[in-house]
TrEMBL record:
Name of protein: Zinc-binding protein
Classification lineage: Bacteria, Bacillati, Chloroflexota, Ktedonobacteria, Ktedonobacterales
Short name of any one Pfam family annotated for the protein: zf_Tbcl_2
Domain CxxC-x17-CxxC: 74-109
Segments forming domain Probable zinc-binding: 5-50
Compositional bias ranges of the Low complexity kind: 108-124
Residue span of region Disordered: 30-72, 105-124
InterPro entries associated with the record: CxxC-x17-CxxC_dom, Zn-bnd_dom_prob
Organism field: Tengunoibacter tsumagoiensis
Length: 124
């Protein structure tokens, strides 16, 4: 496939930059389908801000990040969902006196997601 230089605009600074045919070929060889959205200088600045690590999304981290990427892998614990009985993996040590929900049941019990609140409101 033949590539031609493209003129793009940086999403951060608004400056015009050229996405060269060589860069497009490189992107294709890596399986990347989207054109860059930042100019080279803003891309470098963002990479430096992220500690040189790639990945994550626009929220700044490891798929959601929450800033936890510098702490290494988080230990996950197995628990049984208090609602449906399925196994759930959670990032905290479950306690006998507190219910644990799988992601599906938790989502449906979260008032912000429009589900029914299965938790006792007096406990929270």
């Amino acid at each position: 496939m033949s590539f031609t230089d493209q003129t793009l605009y940086c999403r951060d600074c608004g400056q015009e930059f050229v996405f060269t045919a060589g860069e497009q070929e490189f992107y294709q060889s890596r399986g990347l389908t989207n054109s860059p959205t930042r100019c080279p200088s803003c891309r470098s600045a963002r990479k430096a801000q992220m500690g040189g690590r790639s990945g994550g999304n626009s929220y700044g981290g490891n798929s959601y990040s929450g800033g936890s990427r510098d702490r290494g892998e988080r230990q996950m614990y197995s628990a049984t969902c208090a609602s449906c009985g399925k196994e759930a993996m959670v990032p905290f040590q479950p306690r006998e006196d507190r219910p644990v929900y799988c992601s599906d049941c938790f989502q449906s019990s979260n008032p912000r997601s429009g589900g029914n609140n299965r938790r006792s409101s007096s406990r929270w």
